[in-house]
């Protein structure tokens, strides 16, 4: 019976893959005239646009304000107590439904072999018990039912009339879901549906991916996340990670690819103004036919405000003005003189969060460089994340102290460790996916000719998120330009954008 259902569901979902476009078969691939493009921002979205354009013969200049590429997947070095160490922006999970990004990594960058699978998706609870999800049924719909054995809901939940709204998860539809749920917060929805504690916790792990507190988080965005990661494919909650520092496994392959295709990479090059000219754009003293803005939300607003030639485009400006930042978040990496004795823990664990510690990464188990450090020094390399800091944790000292306190709460056997090195980041540069923002979110194209937006914050017509959204938006921007130039688009795909009960 289950196998029959599985087959039916897979068929209904078109094998869990839908094409986003149909590239013209008889159109040329390569540009036969000279065209130039400026890409502003060297995160995944900018890298995607730059690499895709350059491969087709565009003359591309990539402006990045930092001295490294990758943005939030960047990596840089620092010195501590006479040692040179490498640190990243933070742990990143490459989910298996990131089809476009992973295809590019496999087919073009050649860094797919650096991806290694996580053993389990584990949540640590206050009472030190843990919940793994690796044995969940992989089929959408059946996976929800199998959550019953993990205590996420029970038969009473199914009988409770307040639970009827949960069906909306299986009835996901990009347009309808936003219309109905974008004005409601996750906190409000959880209260009115009397959401069981474990189910709430499960949703919270999704809300954290949006760097948002439950009372601000749009329920529609959360439903999209749940659909994208869990209810539209058989890949489930398991994912892969890069097995070494991002500078080796991520930045270098992009840089090699772009250098091969003659991208001019300008690091330490902040773009503070864009001048629209009759035939293109003047950026940092150079003229371009096309411009792709791939900065984060925090930096796109001052850039547009400081560009008088773009002010006449009122719809575009109105949408940019309405963008906001998420809550503050913190990432603390520590190098210690000892590590956990619990050998069956996966290298990334969610917690049920006391006040601020959302996740713990055991880098010494995951990344070759950290494993080597651990072997040499007999210690561990841990990373502690808080995805949405409460208001009262407002200084570096308070945040660090609270993260460490909660770390010891979940791993009491480590409470006497000594921190040998540490690196702390306290930021607020992720886009807000708060209640009511979706309708006015800017899209890749606008009324401004030859200017495109790319980034994980840009509204798209398909269901995607985070790194996959960043990559796909850059690739769609490149496709738009290919179409203008009469070239064939690159094929892109997506998970189905409608739920099982649609
Ligand atoms: C702590 C943390 C953990 C995360 N974990 C995950 C995860 O597990 N899985 C996942 O899929 N996603 C995760 N994400 C989200 C993921 O990192 C982002 O979705 C993705 O990297 C965004 O890429 P982007 O190109 O849109 O933006 P960014 O990476 O923010 O890139 C924007 C770039 O523009 C540059 N820039 C800004 N202004 C200017 C300017 N004026 N001139 C020139 N350059 C400029 C910036 O320096 C930056 O390099 C995480 C994010 C964080 C912060």
What features would you describe in this structure?
By secondary structure, this protein is an alpha+beta fold. The chain has a domain of 209 residues: FAD/NAD(P)-binding domain (3-Layer(bba) Sandwich). The strands form six sheets. It has a seven-stranded mixed beta sheet with strand order 9-8-17-18-19-16-20. A five-stranded parallel beta sheet has the order 11-3-2-15-21, with helices on one face. The relative contact order is 0.20. Flavin-adenine dinucleotide binds next to α2, α12 and α17. The site of flavin-adenine dinucleotide has 33 residues, from α2, α12 and α17.
Secondary-structure blueprint of this entry?
Elements: H1 2-12, E1 18-19, E2 36-40, H2 44-55, E3 59-63, E4 75-80, E5 83-88, E6 94-95, H3 99-109, E7 115-117, E8 122-124, E9 130-132, H4 142-146, H5 155-159, H6 167-170, H7 174-181, H8 186-192, H9 197-208, H10 219-231, E10 239-242, H11 246-260, E11 264-266, E12 275-277, E13 280-283, E14 286-288, E15 290-293, H12 297-305, H13 314-322, E16 329-336, E17 348-351, E18 359-362, H14 363-366, H15 368-377, E19 381-386, H16 396-410, E20 419-427, E21 451-453, H17 466-484, E22 493-494
Parallel strand pairs: 2-3, 2-15, 3-11, 8-17, 15-21
Antiparallel strand pairs: 1-22, 4-5, 6-10, 7-10, 8-9, 12-13, 13-14, 16-19, 16-20, 17-18, 18-19
Helix pairs in contact: 2-17, 7-10
The structure holds flavin-adenine dinucleotide.
């Amino acid at each position: 019976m289950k196998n029959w259902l599985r087959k039916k569901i897979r068929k209904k979902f078109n094998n869990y893959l839908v094409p986003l476009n149909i590239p013209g078969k008889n159109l040329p691939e390569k540009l036969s005239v000279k065209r130039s493009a400026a890409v502003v921002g060297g995160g995944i979205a900018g890298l995607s646009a730059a690499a895709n354009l350059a491969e087709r013969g565009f003359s591309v200049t990539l402006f990045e304000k930092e001295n490294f590429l990758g943005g939030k997947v960047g990596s840089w070095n620092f010195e501590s107590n006479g040692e040179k160490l490498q640190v990243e922006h933070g742990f990143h999970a490459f989910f298996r439904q990131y089809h476009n990004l992973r295809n590019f990594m496999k087919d073009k960058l050649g860094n797919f072999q650096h991806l290694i699978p996580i053993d389990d998706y584990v949540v640590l609870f206050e009472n030190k018990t843990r919940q793994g999800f690796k044995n969940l049924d992989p089929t959408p719909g059946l996976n929800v039912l199998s959550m019953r054995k993990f205590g996420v809901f029970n038969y009473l939940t199914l009988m409770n009339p307040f639970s009827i709204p949960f069906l909306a998860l299986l009835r996901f539809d990009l347009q309808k879901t936003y219309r109905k749920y974008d004005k409601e917060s996750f906190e409000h929805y959880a209260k009115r549906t009397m959401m069981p504690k474990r189910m709430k916790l499960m949703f919270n792990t999704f809300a954290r991916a949006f760097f948002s507190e439950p009372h601000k988080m749009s329920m529609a965005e959360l439903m999209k996340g749940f659909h994208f990661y869990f209810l539209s494919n058989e890949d489930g909650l398991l994912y892969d990670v890069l097995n070494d520092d991002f500078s080796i496994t991520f930045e270098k392959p992009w840089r090699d690819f772009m250098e091969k295709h003659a991208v001019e990479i300008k690091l330490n090059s902040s773009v503070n103004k864009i001048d629209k000219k009759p035939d293109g754009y003047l950026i940092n003293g150079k003229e371009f036919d096309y411009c792709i803005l791939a900065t984060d939300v925090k930096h796109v607003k001052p850039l547009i405000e400081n560009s008088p030639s773009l002010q006449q485009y009122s719809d575009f400006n109105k949408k940019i003005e309405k963008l906001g930042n998420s809550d503050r978040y913190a990432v603390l990496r520590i190098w210690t003189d000892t590590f956990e004795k619990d050998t069956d823990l996966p290298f990334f664990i969610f917690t049920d969060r006391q006040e601020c510690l959302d996740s713990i990464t055991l880098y010494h188990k995951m990344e070759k460089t950290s494993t080597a450090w651990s072997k040499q020094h007999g210690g561990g390399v841990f990373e502690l994340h808080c995805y949405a800091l409460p208001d009262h944790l407002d200084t570096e000292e308070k945040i660090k102290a609270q993260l460490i306190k909660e770390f010891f709460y979940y791993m009491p056997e480590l409470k006497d460790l000594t921190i040998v090195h540490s690196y702390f980041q306290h930021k607020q540069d992720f886009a807000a996916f708060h209640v009511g923002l979706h309708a006015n979110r800017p899209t890749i194209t606008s009324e401004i000719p030859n200017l495109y937006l790319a980034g994980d914050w840009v509204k798209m017509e398909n269901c995607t998120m985070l790194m996959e959204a960043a990559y796909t938006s850059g690739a769609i921007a490149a496709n738009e330009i290919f179409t203008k130039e009469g070239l064939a688009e690159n094929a892109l795909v997506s998970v189905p954008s409608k739920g099982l009960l649609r």
